[in-house]
Amino acid sequence: MPLKRNSTSATSASEAPTITQAAIKKFIVDSVTAALEARAATMANTSNLTGTPVLLELLYAKENKVTFATGTLIDDVLSWWNAYAQPMGVDQANKITWTELKRLLTNKYYPQTNVRKMEEELYNLIVKGNDLKTYVRRFQ
């Protein structure tokens, strides 16, 4: 059953207050600013998971960097890591330094000849005209 109006309104649509675009924009800016300030205040007073960089620093501390990185390996790189870590044990393998892990991965998957070739290409790279798309595409 449709609702019925009990009384007629004294004000018509033409008598309603008008609002300008500038007033709408100011209202939006003020609302967003207030919301951001409230969020910043809330985040400063809590130690929850969202937006707390201190927790992330604890979870992914420098001493856990190798463990975290090797936990993200997939496919043949993961197989290589498992073959590397198995003889000494995963706990011992995760104790290698970050620099050592980078060196191992570079030696295995990017031989020095390829590194030299890419360095030489980078040093001799020339942009032809204004064709920046081709220049950028080479490194994507």
Automatic annotation (TrEMBL):
Could you state a single Gene Ontology molecular function term? RNA-directed DNA polymerase activity
The source organism is: Tanacetum cinerariifolium
What is this protein identified as? Reverse transcriptase domain-containing protein
Is Transferase found in the keyword set? yes
Q: Which InterPro entries match?
A: Retrotrans_gag_dom
* Any Pfam family the entry gives: Retrotrans_gag
* Ranges where the Retrotransposon gag domain occurs: 68-140
Instruction: Give the keywords, sorted.
Output: Nucleotidyltransferase, RNA-directed DNA polymerase, Transferase
